[in-house]
Design brief:
CATH superfamily of the largest domain: Vaccinia Virus protein VP39
Helix content: 25-40%
CATH architecture of the largest domain: 3-Layer(aba) Sandwich
Low-confidence stretches: none
CATH class of the largest domain: Alpha Beta
Number of helices: 9
Largest sheet: 8 strands, mixed
Mean pLDDT: 93
Number of domains: 2
Number of strands: 13
Order of helices and strands: EHHHEHEHEHEHEHEEEEEHEE
Bound molecules: S-adenosylmethionine
Length: 302
């Protein structure tokens, strides 16, 4: 396996400052939920139990034959364990190099290892923050051959679209493609709450609290909504006045204060198309799972 290349912004010191500032604003950026080896391990276990690739695979594999002939690199943005990309590349058996990228070094390495074990030609694993690295296109350019297929699976639900879609769009040249996926809610949110409010999800989210010594409250997982958007949200609610110490920071919370730990937006095919279009991405083809809870969208830059 080629050694991972880590973006210069992802130093332990910079990450500490970013986390402390976010906690002052009562918010945890998604990247801090996957950062440590134990968090990655718990997330991979949860993913395997609650969203196994075998069960969700159909729309991803259905998209595989539509991958344009000119694609030379598949750049996975926020690859996680990389299972979906590996299945796609194995299904089409073409000479495409897989470039796993993620903000989590343990996950990017796990994806590269799994791809190599699965016989996939694998480039340098890249570690960078997709939401923050202004020079991400330059960082990638030495590693990816155009045309690129960017995959962006399961990430749009965790970010407000304005903070992530312009970044994704800015990586693409006019010959590139984007294959993105989103969780959908065809029958309302209540039916799928158990996919979020369960023991493996709580253990994964609580690992963040344990590693940052955040105590004195409890984790609540709720359904939230505004206008035509709905999402699941995990909040840590303090039950007593608490001070969190982090190097030179002391962050104070009053009983009843909350920290937003995690969100997962649920779209419909129509709301997804509208959101992508707003950021210059046109959905050319949509693939849905049989239960219509997973949508995979082939997009071109407009
Ligand atoms: C829900 S998981 C999806 C993983 C994988 N694509 C899949 O579909 O199984 C979200 C992934 O996004 C990564 N991630 C979170 N914040 C990120 C950021 N700011 N930049 C890059 N990756 C990020 C996480 O480390 C994690 O691997």
């Amino acid at each position: 396996m080629k050694p991972a290349r880590v973006h210069k912004s992802q130093t332990p010191e910079a990450l500490k400052v970013e986390l402390a500032k976010s906690l002052e604003q009562r918010y945890v950026p998604p990247k801090f939920l996957y950062a440590s080896p134990r968090q990655s391990e718990l997330w991979l276990e949860l993913h395997q139990q609650c969203a196994p690739t075998a069960a969700l695979g159909a729309p991803y594999l259905e998209a595989a034959p539509y991958l344009p002939k000119e694609i030379q690199s598949l750049v996975s943005l926020g690859c996680g364990g990389g299972e979906k990309e590996i299945s796609i590349l194995q299904a089409i058996d073409r000479d495409i190099e897989f470039i796993p990228t993620d903000v989590s070094e343990p996950l990017v390495k796990a994806a590269a290892r799994a791809a190599i074990a699965g016989g996939i030609c694998t480039g340098t694993p890249l570690v960078f923050d997709l939401a923050a690295a202004n020079d991400a296109a330059e960082f990638l350019s030495a590693h990816a051959r155009h045309s690129c297929l960017f995959t962006f699976f399961g990430i749009i639900p965790n970010f407000p679209p304005p903070s992530i879609l312009p970044r994704v769009r800015s990586l693409m040249s006019k010959d590139d493609y984007l294959l993105a996926s989103a969780n959908l809610s065809p029958h309302g949110m209540k039916d799928i709450l158990p996919q979020y409010d369960n023991l493996p999800t709580r253990r994964w989210l609580e690992q963040f609290l344990i590693e940052n010594e955040i105590t004195g409250g409890k984790l609540q997982i709720n359904i939230c909504g505004q206008k035509n958007l709905e999402w699941f949200q995990a909040d840590y609610v303090f039950e007593a006045d608490t001070t969190i110490s982090m190097d030179k920071w002391c962050i104070e919370y009053k009983s009843g204060d909350t920290i937003q730990i995690f969100v997962s937006h649920r779209y419909t095919p129509d709301t997804a198309a509208a959101v992508f279009a707003e950021y210059g991405l046109h959905i050319e083809k949509t693939f849905l799972s049989e239960n219509r809870e997973e949508g995979v969208f082939m997009c071109r830059p407009q």
